[in-house]
Amino acid sequence: MSDSAREIHLYHRWSSTAGQMLRMVLSAKKLHWQDHPCALRDQETAFDLDYADLPVLVHANGKKQQATLSELAELDRLYPETLPMQQNIAEPEWAAFCQWRNSLTPLLERLIAPVLPAYDEISHDEEDMNFYRNECERRFQQSVEALANDRYGAYQQLESRGRLRELGKILARQHFYTGDLSLVDIILTADLHLLRLLDGVTIPLDLQYYFQRVADACNISLNDGMTQSL
């Protein structure tokens, strides 16, 4: 068996929040993996790996997983000698965080949909862009342009429901959610960092600094895969 076959392999799309989480966790744990960015309309790769969609992480022993929150947490058990990502998070606090996140996800997905064409895999080809436009209309019953026009009101709802300003102040004091880098920081950053691309919307400066702090701690760029670096 070749050395490459013994490595961890990640099949993902740059524009995928779940893929971003996996890359951040792997990098924070200082694990070595082979990146396999896939095209926007590539479904065959996922099917070949016995999944309906990407991302898919293939471990060196052949075990496969995606990026549900439970699977992300499981990486601590699979790689016990690496930096733990969840040991400082009490179970009730983790459950409360997951509930908070789930309540915001539908609104957040609508907000970031118009900025995902910042990724080259969507915008570099007219057919890919048309495919993405059709997917937006199917998922949200609105065009990309309509979603973009609704960004101000939608962001105000997100900021209020998620108490983003209060969250930013807490994170500014603690640097990370628990004081040390944890899985919550990676999820928050992967989920929310694309809000910085919303034209005319200013997210709390504390959160912007926090995103960069988490990215630096993970030794990863949040702009990977984008057409233009920010």
TrEMBL record:
<dbReference type="InterPro" id="IPR036282">
    <property type="entry name" value="Glutathione-S-Trfase_C_sf"/>
</dbReference>
<dbReference type="InterPro" id="IPR007494">
    <property type="entry name" value="Glutaredoxin2_C"/>
</dbReference>
<dbReference type="GO" id="GO:0016740">
    <property type="term" value="F:transferase activity"/>
</dbReference>
<dbReference type="InterPro" id="IPR004045">
    <property type="entry name" value="Glutathione_S-Trfase_N"/>
</dbReference>
<feature type="domain" description="GST N-terminal">
    <location>
        <begin position="6"/>
        <end position="83"/>
    </location>
</feature>
<dbReference type="Pfam" id="PF04399">
    <property type="entry name" value="Glutaredoxin2_C"/>
</dbReference>
<keyword id="KW-0808">Transferase</keyword>
<protein>
    <submittedName>
        <fullName>Glutathione S-transferase</fullName>
    </submittedName>
</protein>
